[in-house]
Each structure stands twice: as structure tokens, then as C-alpha cells.
């Protein structure tokens, strides 16, 4: 059974964060700089206040207009619906992400944020795992 720790091993433990009082403009700059779709909202990089994504910005722009760009990130962020641990099975997290309709899940180890996993990371890990299995079976058959 593949664990979340295996995904973090290959992708690293970097988590982009932005302070709750940072502007949405600063959030967009961070998303662009790191080429990611969401950041964890945290004042200290440890305690999670929420997650702010491109989708949150788009929704706020529709309802509030351009004033959104100068608003604090805390006014548009989404509360964290689920978290996981390094020991969590990937399959379990896939179900959680689907049921809760979330794309980014912070990874906590004894309450401390040690990484973040996106739906893209999970899909990549599953594909890599299936490819390894395919190669093993092919090797077994041909030997």
C-alpha cells in the first residue's frame, strides 16, 4: 500500500505559504513565482489558517470585482477541509479528496505541517506505480 510519505519523498516537502493579511495580489504573485495553483494560508508556516487557490481568486473577482486584489487573503481563502499524515494510504486520500472536492491537502506530522499533496501529485504517483507494476509483470512474463 503506497503511503503519502512516498509522494513527499519524490516531490519534496516545500509548502508555499502566504500570511492571512497578505493581499490577494501578493497571493497571485506567489502562485506565479512557484508555478502552483494554491498556497497554504499561515501566519507562521506551521499553523494552517486555510488554503487559497486560483479558483478562490476567480470566484472573488466575479462577486467583488477588482477590489478583491487589494483585499486580504483571509477574506477569500477556503477553510482546510481535510489533512493527512505521512503514514496515510494514498488510496484513502484519493477518496477524501473526491468526496470533499478538494485538490490540495496539507500533510501534518504530529500537528506540524511537513508538506502538501495535490491531486496531480496523487495521479502522478498512481501512474508511476502502475508503470512499475507493468514493467515487473512484463519482465516476469518474458523471463
What does this structure look like?
The protein is an alpha+beta fold and 143 residues long. The chain is built from 5 helices and 5 strands; from the N terminus they run H-E-H-E-E-H-H-E-E-H. The strands form 2 sheets. Strands 1-2-3 form a 3-stranded mixed β-sheet. A two-stranded antiparallel ribbon has the order 4-5. The longest helix has 24 residues, at 119-142. The radius of gyration is 18 Å and the shape is elongated. The mean pLDDT is 93.
Topology, number of strands: 5
Q: What is the global morphology? A: elongated
Q: Determine the fraction of residues in helical runs and give it as a percent range.
A: 40-55%
Q: Give the amount of beta strand, in percent.
A: 15-25%
Largest β sheet strand count, sense and barrel closure = 3 strands, mixed
Q: Radius of gyration, Cα only, in angstroms?
A: 18 Å
Structural class: alpha+beta
Features:
elongated, 3-stranded mixed beta sheet, two-stranded antiparallel sheet, alpha+beta, 5 strands, 16% strand, 143 residues
What's the arrangement of secondary structure elements?
Blueprint (H helix, E strand, L loop, with lengths): L3 H8 L5 E2 L5 H11 L3 E4 L8 E4 H11 L25 H11 L3 E6 L2 E7 H24 L1
Parallel strand pairs: 1-2
Antiparallel strand pairs: 2-3, 4-5
Short description:
Helices cover 45% and strands 16% of the residues. It has 143 residues and is an alpha+beta fold.
Amino acid at each position: 500500500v503506497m503511503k503519502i510519505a512516498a509522494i513527499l519523498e519524490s516531490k519534496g516537502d516545500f509548502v508555499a505559504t502566504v500570511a492571512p493579511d497578505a493581499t490577494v495580489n501578493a497571493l497571485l504573485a506567489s502562485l506565479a513565482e512557484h508555478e502552483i495553483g494554491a498556497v497554504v494560508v499561515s501566519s507562521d508556516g506551521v499553523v494552517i489558517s486555510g488554503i487559497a487557490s486560483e479558483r478562490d481568486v476567480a470566484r472573488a473577482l466575479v462577486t467583488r470585482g477588482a477590489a478583491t486584489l487589494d483585499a486580504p487573503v483571509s477574506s477569500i481563502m477556503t477553510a482546510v477541509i481535510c489533512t493527512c499524515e505521512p503514514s496515510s494510504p494514498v488510496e484513502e486520500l484519493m477518496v477524501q479528496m473526491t468526496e470533499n472536492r478538494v485538490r490540495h491537502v496539507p500533510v501534518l506530522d504530529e500537528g506540524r505541517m511537513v508538506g502538501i499533496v495535490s491531486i496531480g501529485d496523487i495521479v502522478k504517483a498512481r501512474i508511476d506505480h502502475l508503470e512499475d507494476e507493468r514493467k515487473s509483470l512484463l519482465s516476469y512474463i518474458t523471463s
